[in-house]
Amino acid sequence: MAPENTAIEGLGHKFQEARKARGLSIDEAARLTKIRQSRLVEIEADDFSNFPNLAYAKGFLQIYGKFLEVDVTPYLDAFETPGQITVDGYSYLQDNPVPKPARAAASRPAASESGRPSLLLFLVGLGVLVLGLWFIRLILNVQRISPHTVATAAASPTASAGQIIAPRALPADTPTPRVAATVAPTVAPALTTPEP
Asked: With a threshold of 0.70, does the pTM exceed it?
């Protein structure tokens, strides 16, 4: 269902003049409005035949009109949908052959020609299992030994009782004789009393 060309004729020309008056190229207008350049070219050419639905064309006209400050309300009546809605304008609702689903890649492990999982895969899994069990056993042994060793070390001294040597006094150095300065007593002169 195409809009009446007489009703919207000249709208594309108005858009083109408004865009050029602002000094914008079609690429700049497409980038700023986020509308594909090919759609803007079609709108400016008044060609709405390539739009999947006229509702898209109406929406793009409103966006482009607001951007260029062109009043599009008189032209939107040509895009009014009739009271009865059909799937004619909706290309994604029309009958199309159902596409075959893409074949998913096999998510099974590599299999030998006989259809069984390969021996290599089995050996790798067994190796991982053995390493995991060995690691768990190692951790459990460390946890079991660790508290016992700490408790024993705290309870007993580091040397055995047979190796303990009793402390002994070290020989004292003989002091060098010191000459003490002796102070000679000074005798005070006796008091003499005069004889009469």
From this structure: no
Question: Per-residue pLDDT tens for 46-99?
Answer: 887 887 777 888 888 889 888 888 888 877 776 665 555 565 555 665 666 666
Phi, psi values for residue 15, rounded to 5°: -60, -45
HEC readout, the chain: CCCCHHHHCCHHHHHHHHHHHCCCCHHHHHHHHCCCHHHHHHHHCCCCCCCCCHHHHHHHHHHHHHHHCCCCHHHHHHHCCCCCCCCCCCHHHCCCCCCCCCCCCCCCCCECCCCCECHHHHHHHHHHHHHHHHHHHHHHHHHHHHHHHHHHHHHCCCCCHHHCCCCCCCCCCCCCCCCCCCCCCCCCCCCCCCCC
Phi, psi (5° rounding) for residue 111? -120, 150
Tokens read off for 194: 């005069």
Residue pLDDT, tens place only, 89-139: 556 656 666 667 776 665 555 555 666 678 888 899 999 999 999 999 999
Q: Output the pLDDT for position 57.
A: 81
Task: Provide the angle, in degrees to the nearest 10, between the axes of the packed helices 54-68 and 11-21.
Answer: 30
- When pLDDT is averaged across residues 155-163 and rounded to a whole number, the result is 58
CA-to-CA dists, residue 175 to 36, 114, 171, angstroms: 109, 101, 12
- Alpha-carbon distance of 74 to 146, in angstroms, equals 89
Report which residue type is found at 183: V
